[in-house]
Each structure stands twice: as C-alpha cells, then as structure tokens.
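CORE FACILITY INTAKE
Project code: CF-77B
Contact: R.S. (postdoc)
Sample description: multi-component assembly, two entities in total
Requested service: structural model of the whole complex
Turnaround: standard
Below are the sequence entries exactly as provided by the requester. Do not edit them.
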Amino acid sequence: MSSASLLEAPPLAPALRCRDVRVSFRDHEVVCGVDLELAPGEWLGIIGPNGAGKSTLLRSIIGLTDFLGTVALGDGSAPGAADVALVPQFPVLPKGMTVAEYVLLGRTAHLGWLARESQADRQIVSSVLHRLELSAFADRFVSTLSGGEAQQVVVARALAQQCPVLLLDEPTSALDVGHQVSVLELVDDLRRTEGLSVLAAMHDLSAAGRFADRLILIDHGRIVAQGSPVEVLDADLLSAVYGTPLTVQTIDGELVVLPASRRREKEPS
Amino acid sequence: MADASLPATALADSDAANPAVGRAFGLSASATLIGIAVLVAVAVLSAISGAAGLPVSGIFAALFDWIPLLGVESSLSATQESILFEIRLPRLVLGMLVGGSLAVAGASYQGVFRNPLADPYLLGVSAGAGFGAVLALGFGLDLGWGPFDTVPAAAFLGALVAVLASMGIARGGGASPATLLLGGVAMAALFSAAQTYAIQQLDENRAREVLSWLFGQLNTTGWKEIWLLLPYVAVCGAVLFVHRRHLDVLRVGDDEARSLGLDPVRSRLTVIVAASLLTAAAVSVSGLIAFVGLVVPHIVRLLISHSYRVIVPLSALVGAAFLAFVDIGARTLLAPEELPVGILTAFVGAPFFALVLWRDRWSTT
C-alpha cells in the first residue's frame, strides 16, 4: 500500500474538499450549502439527528446522488472509486459469495481488459485479509458471518480499493456495543498505520467524541457547529439540535453524551 | 488454516500462506479442466452414436485423417464420410453452440436481474421469435436475404422486436430489473397471443411445420447454420465473458456497485443486449429449446461456485455438453423417428426447475 508516501507528503492540500454542496429531492433541499475540508490523516466526524442530511452528504461525495457545488480531491479532480471508498450503513451481503470474492469487489475500479483478476488483485485481497486477521475466513460465505465479522469484511473491501479517503456511513449502527468499538478501533488503527483520511457519519455521539479529531454538527442540511469534540459536544447545543435534553460528562478523560434524566422535572407535579 | 494468533512475520503475503484465500480463488482452473473433459467425452459419444451404424474405429481414423501430418488413413466409405462430416458433426457442433449460447445467456440474465430463476426467454424473446417465424412461414413472407433463410431471419427479427419493446417499456420505469421483467412479461403475453392467433389461421401442414420449429430442433443443412450462428457466439460471447465480474459487482446492488466504480445501468444494458442477441441468434437456427439456460447455470452454481467469474465461462462448457448429450437421446431414443430436442430438455429441466423452487435455500441466491 502507498501508506508511507502519503504520510511523508507534507499536508498542504486537503485530502477532500466540499464547497457549497447542495442536494435537493424534488423541491426540498436536504443538504443546503455544506463546506468542509478533510485533512490528510484526519478523522472528521459528521454528527446530527436522523434526517439531518449526513448520509446524503456522503452519497453526494461518492457520486451516488446529484448535487450542486463542488467535491474535489486535493489536486482538484473529482473523486472516483480509486480515490474514495465507502463503508455503507447496511451493506448487501450476497448469498453464496465468499469473503475473498467479496473483498475482490473492491478491485472493480481496476478491472483490466478480459476482466481477469490479476495477480496483483489477489495479492491485495490476500494482504488485506491478513491485515485484518480475516485470512481464515477467506472461503466462508459472507451471508453466514456475524454482524461484527461482516462489518470487518466490508472494511476489508473498502481497503482493497486502496483509496486514501475512507467514508463511513454510520458503520456501526447494526452492531452491539462491543463490536461497535472494535470496528471503530480497527478503522482508527488503519488510519494511523495506512495514512488514511476518514470522513464518518456517526450516530453515537460518545464514539464520535472519542475517535474523531474534529466534528461537524449538521441540522436540517446546514452546518451548525464545527470544531474539536470538546467544542462541538456542548450540552446546550446538542440538546437544542437533537430536541431532547442531553448532558455531556467526562469519564476517564473521555467525553460521554447521555440523555438528561427528566424524572426530577416531573417530581413536583 | 492461517492462524490469526501467529505473529505477523510468520505469514508471508501470498496465497500459499493463506490456504483459504487460495481455495476461494483456485477452484475455477480444475473445474474448467473437468468441464472440457466432459465436453470432449460427450462429443465422442455423440459422434459414435446414431442410426447409420458407422464403425467406431473408422470414425476415429476419419477424424485423425483430417489432422495433417498424422498419417492416419480414413477407412470409411465416401457415403459414411459424408454422414459423419455433413450430418453428424455439424449437428454435434450446432448442439454445442446453441447449448453454450443459451446457458451463457441464462447465466447473464440471472446476474443482471439478480434472480436465479431468470432464463434467456425472459424478455419475450421466445414469443417474439415464434411470432416472427409463424408470420414468415404462414403468410409466405420472403425475408430470405443472402445466406439467411426466411424462418431464422423472421425469428431473429421477432425476438429482437420483442426485446427492444420490453426495454422500451422499462425505460419509462427507470430501467430497474423489476420493470424490465414486467416489460418482458407484457411483451411475451402480447406476442404469444399474436402467435397463437396466427397459427390458428394456418393450414394444417404449415401449422405442423411451425409447431415442430417451436418445439426446438437441431436440424442442420451441412455447416450452414453453424456459420450463421458463429459470429453472434463469438461477439456476444466475448462481451458477456468480459462482463462476468460486473455481474458479481451488481449482486451488491446499484448504489454499492456505483461506489465501487461500476456504472450499473450501462453494464446491465450491455449484458442484456448481448445476451438477447445471442438468444435470438440461437432461437433463429434451433427454435425454442427450453430450460438449458435455466438449469445449466444452476448446476454450476450448486457444484462449483456462486461467482459469475466462474459461472459464465463454465456455463458455456456445461451448456454445450448438456445439449449435445440430450440431443443424442433425441436422435436415438425413438430411432428412426426423431424427438424434438426441446421436448427432452423440458423433460429434464421442468422437474429441476420445480426442485429449485421448492428448495428455498437455493432460490434466493
């Protein structure tokens, strides 16, 4: 992988830049002029309530939906499947497809003529599986994997695309708490060792605070706050945006966002 | 098994160090060899069986005589040689081409429609071809042009019109697999009705001629049908072969396919056009041979792999062997009478189809 050169390159140009991105469905604007820059090696978290436009923003970056404005890589070109890899929220796991075949799908952007999988393709699949300690799973069917294993395999497919930018669309929403943490730790580990930049829509605010370098809070398609997790994970701000009272506490040095208890308010009545 | 707990340095980045990775990729080579062996065995069996009672040793001698520099002399009489080279071998080769074409078209349709029960006659191909043939035969249309006889030409045109109409209907609905299927159902119903009406208007002899064509047969006049079919097999077969990995990518859905760098609409359109042309060409020389395109990809899927990387090329081999084998039965079971081969494939295919429907663990792959 080209990780070394990525890390050594001076971080002048952003890995990804969005300028005034707007997405409309019929007459309704879902993303209303979002600007963002993703620095090389950075984990940028996008948070916001359901329907705020997080997924739609990611979909426009990867070209799955029409949008106005510009999405560009550091060199100004439009991103393709060799530049930006997506880990979808609810990946399709076809019946009868082996893990190795599934990870091979990540090589689609590198299909040669005659479409034979090259030795390089196999090598990449093999080393990605090895990197994620999934080698023993290679000939298992993806449809028979547990949720946590499956999500690791989806990450493996994204890695096989060999893209410098990884998009995660609420990657852990189908997982229990243990697997949520392990998948996010895996991505964080890959970010450090492979020099990836990560742009992740996240619904778990505490996890967002723990893993992201920077957070963007979106509401009704607009950025309402951005900055370090300490700045964005503000109880008053989050309570207003999510429409429910939230508290932010620091436990063992980590920010934890919790729903505020309403019991006290009810007691006097 | 590569043990994940081993230190990383103990594992080299190679298929050899990851036996499961090797297994997941390595199946197709041995399976292809077995497929070729089966095809050759069926071809030999087909060449030596038949009503004329050609001596087996003579057949081999005649075949080897054909290969230069081998110094083997044919021991067959001139009549026997012409039976072998002008009747038996063309029919064998035609059976293999038609069987391979239908199987590859079926595998491709199953891939693009993400439905294991899709078959080559899905988009109204059969009904359109039938209607074209009935019109040409029954009403004495002369569509013959150059080397093309009237019936194949009319069948080809009918199939093409039906497919294009199905796709035209579906374009209005966003060209999703579901709307294409429904467009095909509509076209098939329309053309079947037209075909039935047209047959009703024919006199008895012509109606019988049309029906025997509809049942599917592999009658040859020398090598003519093969030269007609070969360009389509070469071009469409190559297109489908090159798109086999696209079919795997399409299995994860259009959005993910696009995020992986595939244009799903263009891939689907290319595959549908190539598979439909291939089917129309096969139908135009052989009539309607049922179930080959449905059963053969399933056999490959059950025995070897669910990946279209493997299913598409192996379906060509297995389809060729399957139809050539069934045709031996069609030629010999009721000799000297001949069974329409389409009826025999249906006898084999229909129970298999039912089995696939009943076993639901097969039906959603």
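Facility notes:
- Chain A has one domain: 3-266.
- Chain A has a mean pLDDT of 87.
Invoice: internal transfer
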